[in-house]
C-alpha cells in the first residue's frame, strides 16, 4: 500500500517490510471478499489504510507486551488484525456472531501466518460463559453506545487488566450515561487519549478502563439486553 510505512511512522508505529506485505495482502483479501460479502463500505486503498488499518493500530501503545487480547464484534478484523500485524507479541482472540465473517478471518490468519491468533463464531454473552476474566485486554471498535459496549467487554477482562475502547468525539456524554455501568461491572476510567488523524480529519478518543474488581456473574445478560436495556 502506497505510503503505508511513512504514514504509520508519522504516528509512532514502525512497520517492517514483512508487516507492510501483510497489510498489502490483507487489503487485497478484504476488497476481493467484499465483492461477495458485506465486510466494509470503505474499499478505496487510501481510505482503508487510514480509516481501518492506521486507526485500528494507533492504540497499540496502550497494550502491554505479550498481552492476551479479545476483540468483541471483530467484523472484518478491526482492530484485531492490524494490532496483531504491528504487535506480533500479542495473543489475539476474535469473536463475531456471523460465521461468514469468522471464515474470512480464519483465511486472513492463515494467509498472513499470524500465530497465536484465533477466531470464534459466538455471541459475546455465550463466549463469556467459558472465558470470564481470562484476558489481559478487551478491545472494541464497534459503534454501540458505551453503556452497552462495557457490558460486552468487561466480563472478559482479568482484574488488573484493561478495556481499550475506540470512540469518536461524543465520548463525554457517553461516559456520563455509562459511569454507573462501569462501576457495577468492576472498572474505573484510567485515561482518555485524544488524537487526530490529519490525513482524513478523523478525531478519535481512546478510552481506557481499568478492571479493579470482579464483574457480577449475571453480566453480560443475554437476549440483546445490553443493547435494549443498558445498565442505568
How is this structure best summarized?
By secondary structure, the protein is of the alpha/beta class.
Summary tags:
232 residues, alpha/beta, Rossmann fold
Q: What would you note in describing this structure?
A:
It is a single chain. The chain has nine helices and seven strands; from the N terminus they run H-H-H-E-H-E-H-E-H-E-H-E-H-E-E-H. It is globular, with a radius of gyration of 17 Å. The protein is an alpha/beta fold and 232 residues long. Helix 3 (45-57) crosses helix 4 (80-86) and helix 7 (146-153) runs parallel beside helix 8 (171-184). Strands 3-2-1-4-5-7-6 form a seven-stranded mixed sheet, sandwiched between helices. The chain has a single domain (4-228), classed as Vaccinia Virus protein VP39 (Rossmann fold). The chain is 40% helix and 23% strand.
Amino acid at each position: 500500500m502506497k505510503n503505508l510505512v511513512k504514514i504509520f511512522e508519522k504516528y509512532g508505529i514502525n512497520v517492517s517490510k514483512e508487516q507492510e506485505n501483510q497489510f498489502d495482502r490483507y487489503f487485497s483479501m478484504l476488497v476481493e471478499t467484499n465483492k461477495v460479502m458485506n465486510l466494509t463500505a470503505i474499499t478505496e486503498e487510501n481510505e482503508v489504510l487510514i480509516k481501518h488499518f492506521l486507526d485500528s493500530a494507533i492504540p497499540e501503545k496502550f497494550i502491554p507486551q505479550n498481552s492476551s487480547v479479545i476483540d468483541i464484534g471483530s467484523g472484518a478484523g478491526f482492530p484485531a488484525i492490524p494490532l496483531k500485524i504491528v504487535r506480533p507479541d500479542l495473543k489475539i482472540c476474535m469473536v463475531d456472531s456471523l460465521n461468514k465473517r469468522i471464515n474470512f478471518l480464519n483465511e486472513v490468519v492463515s494467509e498472513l501466518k499470524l500465530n497465536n491468533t484465533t477466531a470464534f463464531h459466538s455471541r459475546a454473552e455465550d463466549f463469556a460463559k467459558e472465558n470470564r476474566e481470562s484476558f489481559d485486554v478487551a478491545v472494541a471498535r464497534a459503534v454501540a453506545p458505551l453503556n452497552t459496549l462495557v457490558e460486552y467487554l468487561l466480563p472478559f477482562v482479568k482484574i488488573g487488566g484493561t478495556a481499550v475502547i475506540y470512540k469518536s468525539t461524543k465520548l463525554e456524554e457517553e461516559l456520563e450515561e455509562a459511569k454507573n455501568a462501569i462501576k457495577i461491572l468492576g472498572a474505573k476510567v484510567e485515561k482518555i487519549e485524544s488524537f487526530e488523524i490529519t490525513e482524513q480529519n478523523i478525531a478519535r478518543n481512546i478510552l481506557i478502563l481499568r478492571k479493579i474488581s470482579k464483574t457480577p456473574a449475571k453480566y453480560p445478560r443475554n437476549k440483546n439486553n445490553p443493547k435494549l436495556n443498558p445498565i442505568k
